[in-house]
Amino acid sequence: MHEVEAKGILSAQNGMNIYRGCTHGCIYCDARSTCYQMHHAFEDIEVKKNAPELLEKALRSKRKRCMIGTGAMSDPYLHYEEELRLTRRCLKLIDRYGFGLAIQTKSDRILRDLDLLKSINRKAKCVVQITLTTLDDELCRILEPNVCPTSRRIEVLKVMRDEGIPTIVWMTPMLPFINDTEENIRGLLDACKEAKVYGILTFGVGLTLRDGDRQYFYQKLDKHFPGMKERYISIYGNAYELPVPDSAYLNSLIKDECRAAGIICNTDRLFAYMHEFEDKAAGEQLSLF
Questions:
Q1: Do 198 and 166 touch, CB atoms closer than 8 A?
Q2: Sheet holding 67-70, edge to edge
Q3: Please, what is the angle between helix 86-96 and helix 114-123, to 10°?
Q4: Beta-carbon contacts of residue 239 (< 8 Å; ≥ 6 apart)
Q5: C-alpha to C-alpha distance for 38 and 101, rounded to whole angstroms
Q6: Of 173, 178, 183, 184, residue with least CA distance to 232
Q7: DSSP state of 104
Q8: Judging by beta carbons within 10 Å of its beta carbon (0-12, 13-18, 19+), is residue 282 exposed, middle or buried?
Q9: For residue 196, how many C-alpha atoms fall within 13 Å in the half-sphere facing its CB?
């Protein structure tokens, strides 16, 4: 871990990343890709120690309240958050100034801040996004080794359900020949139905690989799935998009099941929902688009 004084905290679309890099160890992580030009080791987490101060300045300067997003590039609940509490400090500011929140994580550490999530959701809107890739906790410990297993994340979704906080599941990636079975996908869908999630994102059923990400992923395939790397190379070469063999059928399955359960699975609609600010006290909805 190393600390930096950041110059800014919010992107043009009002997204923020308090940390850069990750300790979850997910074997497929796109954030490892060299296109993001990270100039330090991925597990040597860059900490924006002045993130709360920058965020308060940014929120105070905004003419209109909006949704603030976090977690797109680096999980806001890394191990260091237990000690540093920068995410919690930022959530307090979002709550204090009456902004909305769209937060993405794989960690049950988010439950620590349930009080703030509930408060934000009472005033505006809080959308919690959780990644689910496999119903098998043993496989999860291989794919995502340093973060809580799927069963625990499903418990988090149910807590949010019980508190009236809307949730969106990132049911991605599906790794060809590893977690892309119909049984796994149906199991995840059943869990989402029980948790009454608002939406499911899949981006098609498959995996994407880029330089940096691809090399790390293949190292882990050699370690945990001998012979699988060669199978991938023979089928996909150096392709960016790696759809699973039954992607058309599985996409159709997901859409049909979501439609029957009243779960939104349209990517554009879900991203619009996460960007749409709601002033519940005034009964207004304000779109960023």
A1: yes
A2: 15-16, 67-70, 100-105, 126-131, 167-170, 199-201
A3: 20
A4: 209
A5: 26
A6: 178
A7: E
A8: exposed
A9: 9
- What are 285's strand-pairing partners? 278
Secondary element (H or E) of residue 40: none
Dump pLDDT digits (tens) for 252-286.
999 999 999 999 999 999 999 999 999 887 776 65
**Residue 29 is encoded by which pair of tokens?**
């992580």
pLDDT digits (tens, 9 = 90+) for 19-52: 999 999 999 999 999 999 888 899 999 999 999 9
DSSP string for residues in 46-84: EEETTHHHHHHHHHHH-SS--EEEE-SSS-TT-TTHHHH
Q: How far is residue 129's CA from residue 153's CA, in Å, rounded to a whole number?
A: 10
User: Of 150, 135, 129, 113, whose CA–CA distance to 183 is shortest?
Assistant: 135
User: What's the pTM?
Assistant: 0.94
Q: Nearest CA to 170 among 30, 37, 21, 15?
A: 30
Angle of helix 86-96 relative to helix 51-61, nearest 10 degrees, comes to 20
CA distance 102 to 70: 7
CB 47 within 8 A of CB 84: yes
Q: How far apart are CA 100 and CA 121, in angstroms?
A: 7
| Interatomic CA distance for residues 13 and 28, integer angstroms | 26
Alpha-carbon gap, residue 131 to 116, rounded angstroms: 21
